[in-house]
Design goal:
The complex is a heterodimer. By secondary structure, chain A is of the alpha+beta class. Chain A has 5 helices and 5 strands, in the order ββαβββαααα. In chain A, helix 2 crosses helix 5. By secondary structure, chain B is an alpha+beta fold. Classes of the chains: A alpha+beta, B alpha+beta.
Chain lengths: 151, 753
């Protein structure tokens, strides 16, 4: 067990966990930030996507000890009231069915749009291809990414 | 207008005042992507008055509607309260929606499955809404000393025109809650619906996009421990022993023990499919620590002998279930299934004299189709929270069928059902998998053993390898044609491991004079369960692929050919047990033909059609493929649907889009195989799921304009997709695809997938 100081959603948080613990479980079990989801544990589904200094990463493959001073953003820290343009676009298109994968989808979309504010359809498809939606809401996800890009 | 006797829904009107208070999780229905101004925010009332099990109204006019059915993504949590709200005659903006817990005394059918939520909820929910409205009107009549028949309502207000008296529902709620429940109520005319038929956003939308805890996997209470399970690595294997000392001293580990979900003399119900009734549980302080112990635990397994158990089947008949011994292989499954296709099956329906017609046929077309086992792969793996202590249990988890697991919990825990509360979590997908809720029993047993609240979570690997799969199937179709190329007889023989997929009285039965349907099944210890449109999801693919090929052999347009058959079934049906409406069936084919401009496709587009009726709804689909860089891409799918009245059109469209994507994914990629009882895929690195780039570029969903009572949508969009894809792939590549999944065969043709 070791102590780690993490900068999460603009706040400093201290946790005492095994150094190999993936960020995913630190967020979920130790910090009550359960918006970041467990889906596969092998970085194959995207449900656990968070931002490290604005870059989308798979928190299930990120040992807490590897994080130094990077700023971590989770779905809970994306906006105060769910009014980030990507969240608003998600609501406008009423994207979710079960909803489980959507925070990972949104985190991937936000980081992608920061890099590429005016993406083409194939670029969106490529950027969002790592996030599985078992309910198959892909068309709405793509439409919401486009709406967010235009807002 | 129709009059409904309220007695059909009597238990909904039991007044349970203890529940009228607080402790609720609220959903704000008006959150549609815009930030509300303070004055739009509906304030919480000081007091709630319960009018029936579904409805309570605050003194300030706020309305809470309880959504009775578990929510797994089909949006019943929005659509079912919409039905209540319309008959109650309130403004949707003033509605809070709350997930009802499992209360069989208060609600009729808390089951999500079989696409039945809206269909079976339609009249009870309308009646509950109309009854509450009538009680509010009666309260106003009593207060104002006027006749109730002169009172009108609208958007949550009550009005008496001649005296010009007006009141909000909130003002009359306290009196209304004390009045007798009317014996009969008038339901609205369809033309008077204000909410039904309009698109309303998901009531949990804002919570989902902000990552609020909605799922049981997110649940946490003080003192809660974390747990996971170790189940046998193969079908046909059971626990022999485990070495607790191998992990007991590991960091954060509290306890290791085995749990058994069935007691020896327990009589199982239809949904009591637990693949591994005994498994090892590990309990600790955090998920990660438990997962480390899970990897390190030393367990010995042994071959399971054949076993049997007493059960009551779906129809209430008592029987004995048998689980065969052995470590099964997919190669053996295929060989056995091929053998069964050549043997006589059980005759399920025979019209005319099909054997004689086949003997005299000028031409016979025979094709065999197959599909593999599939895992449900819900994005949220099996998990459950349980707090069992002092002879009481609270179980909060993802379940489609709480009623079916209650008895299993009772026998496993030794606690009477009065002391077990099942609370319904939003599910991260279901697709049939969570009709089998033994994860709840496992969590409850673990909590009972450690005498603390516990959250038990399966890893993805546990989830994918724990059975309750879609079965593997095979179907052989034969058509007899005379010298004029006219269809004279039709024969289907289909089976699977361990069930036949045939619904013998469905189309094309009823459309052909000489018809034979036979079924067969092969026993297995690989457990199976409902998977989005059980059986239909395969037999539709085989039947609709065969009809496509048959139409080609008969030199007919595939839609025109189906319509000819349906015309025969409509005007002069063969037999009496046909369980479809040929006119509605034809209606969706005609609609999809029109909307897809079937007769004038775009250049370079290869299209296929398919149609199916199941779960009370009719769906026809046209699927367009374009070849891009040697890769078949699904460009567009058109769906035409007849599900009666559409309650929430945009949500219904979303359901259609999702099911079509799901069907394309499973048709291209879905497959689970076995070697010595071991599933060959354990996670999404090997189990290929459809992803964004493989989804169709566009989907159009068209609803038949109908005044029929609504039927379900979760399943009916799904079965036709497989054949629509296969038939369009044929047009694109010149090859017919008989065996799912299609991607490996396409790759063999040097196409990219």
């Amino acid at each position: 067990m070791a102590k780690f100081n993490l900068n999460i959603n603009g706040k400093s948080k201290e946790v005492e966990v095994d150094a190999a613990t993936p960020l995913l479980w630190v967020l979920r079990d130790h910090l009550n930030l359960t918006g970041t989801k467990y889906g596969c544990g092998i970085a194959a589904c995207g449900a656990c996507t968070v931002h490290l200094d604005g870059v989308a990463v798979r928190s299930c493959q990120m040992p807490v000890s590897n994080i130094e001073n990077q700023k971590i953003t989770t779905i809970e820290g994306l906006s105060e009231n769910g009014d980030h343009p990507v969240q608003k676009a998600w609501l406008e298109h009423d994207v979710p069915q079960c909803g489980y994968c959507q925070s990972g989808q949104i985190m991937t979309a936000v980081a992608f749009l920061k890099e590429n504010p005016n993406p083409s359809d194939p670029e969106i498809e490529n950027a969002m291809n790592g996030n599985i939606c078992r309910c198959g809401t892909y068309l709405r996800i793509k439409a919401a990414v486009k709406t967010a890009a235009n807002s | 207008m129709s009059i409904e006797k309220t007695s059909i829904n009597r238990r909904s009107f039991l007044k349970v005042s203890a529940l009228a208070g607080g402790g609720m999780v609220l959903s704000f229905s008006w959150l549609a992507g815009c930030k509300p101004t303070p004055k739009e925010v509906l304030s919480m009332p000081k007091e709630w008055f319960e009018l029936n099990s579904y409805i309570k109204i605050g003194e300030n006019g706020a309305v809470t509607l309880f959504s009775p059915n578990p929510e797994f993504g089909s949006n019943v949590k929005t659509s079912m309260p919409m039905i209540l709200a319309d008959e109650l005659d309130i403004d949707w903006k003033n509605v809070f929606v709350e997930q009802a817990d499992f209360y069989p005394e208060r609600y009729d059918r808390q089951f999500t499955g079989g696409s039945q939520g809206i269909r079976q909820g339609w009249t009870p929910l309308r009646t509950a809404g109309a009854t509450a409205r009538m009680m509010l009107v009666n309260a106003a009549a009593q207060t104002w000393k006027v006749s109730a028949s002169e009172i009108t309502t609208g958007a949550g207000t009550i009005h008496h025109k001649s005296s010009n008296k007006k009141a909000g529902y909130g003002e009359m709620a306290s009196l209304a809650a004390t009045l007798p429940v009317p014996e009969e109520v008038k339901l609205k005319e369809i033309k008077d619906f204000k909410i039904i038929g309009t698109s309303k956003k998901n009531v949990d939308g804002l919570k989902i996009v902000t990552g609020q805890p909605l799922f049981s996997i997110d649940h946490k209470v003080d003192g809660m421990l974390y747990s996971s399970i170790v189940h046998p690595p193969a079908f046909g294997i059971k626990l022999k022993s485990f070495d607790a000392s191998s992990v007991k001293s590991m960091q954060g580990i509290k306890d290791i023990f085995s749990v058994k979900v069935f007691s020896e003399d327990y009589e199982r119900n239809f949904f009591d499919t637990a693949t591994f009734p005994e498994m090892v549980a590990i309990v600790g302080n955090s998920t990660w620590e438990v997962l480390q112990a899970k990897k390190a635990l030393k367990v010995e397994w042994e071959n399971a002998p054949q076993s049997s158990f007493a059960m009551t089947d779906f129809g209430g008949n008592k029987s004995t279930g048998t689980i065969p011994a052995g470590l099964e292989n997919s190669a053996d499954h295929k060989a056995k299934m091929a053998e069964y296709t050549t043997k006589p099956g059980n005759i399920l329906r025979r019209d005319g004299d099909p054997e004689a017609q086949f003997k005299k046929a000028a031409k016979v077309l025979e094709r065999t189709y197959s599909a593999p086992f599939l895992a449900h792969n819900t994005m949220e793996p099996m998990n459950c929270f349980a707090d069992v202590s002092g002879g009481k249990a609270v179980v909060y988890g993802p379940t489609q069928a709480p009623e079916s697991i209650m008895g299993t919990l009772v026998q496993a825990l030794g606690i009477p059902k009065e002391n077990i509360q099942i609370n319904l979590a939003r599910m991260g997908g279901g697709f049939g998998r969570r009709a089998y809720s033994h994860h709840m029993v496992e969590a409850a047993l673990i909590s009972q053993k450690v005498n603390a609240p516990v959250k038990m979570v399966y890893t993805r690997e546990d989830d994918m390898t724990s059975g309750v799969y879609r079965p593997t199937y095979s179907a052989t179709y034969r058509a007899a044609l005379d010298e004029n190329n006219k269809l004279i007889a039709f024969h289907v023989k289909a089976g699977g491991i361990p069930e036949t997929p045939i619904a013998p009285n469905r189309f094309p039965a009823g459309a052909i004079d000489h018809y034979l349907a036979e079924g067969w099944q092969i026993e297995s210890n690989i457990t199976i369960g409902a998977f989005r449109a059980p059986r239909s999801n395969f037999i539709a693919s085989a039947e609709q692929s065969f009809l496509d090929e048959l139409a080609e052999v008969m030199e007919k347009d595939p839609i025109a050919f189906r319509l000819e058959l349906l015309d025969r079934a409509k005007t002069n049906p063969v037999g009496e047990k046909n369980d479809y409406n040929a006119a509605r069936y034809a209606g969706v084919l005609e609609l999809v033909r029109e909307k897809s401009k079937w007769n004038s496709p775009l250049d370079n587009v290869h299209r296929g059609v398919s149609a199916y009726f199941c779960h009370n709804s009719y769906v026809a689909e046209v699927l367009d493929i374009v070849m891009k860089d040697n890769k078949p891409m699904v460009e567009k799918v058109y769906a035409a649907v007849d599900c009666g009245i559409v309650v929430n059109p945009d949500a219904a469209t979303n359901m259609g889009e999702g099911a079509i994507v799901d069907g394309i994914g499973n048709a291209f990629f879905g497959e689970l195989a076995f070697e010595n009882g071991v599933p060959n895929k354990t996670n999404f690195d090997k189990y290929r799921m459809i992803r964004q780039a493989e989804a169709p570029k566009a989907i159009e969903v068209h609803f038949v304009d109908s005044k029929e009572d609504p039927t379900g949508l979760g399943e009916p969009f799904f079965p036709p997709v497989f054949a629509a894809l296969a038939n369009s792939l044929y047009k694109a590549t010149g090859r017919r695809y008989y065996d799912q999944p299609f991607a490996p065969q396409l790759e063999m043709q040097n196409l990219k997938m």
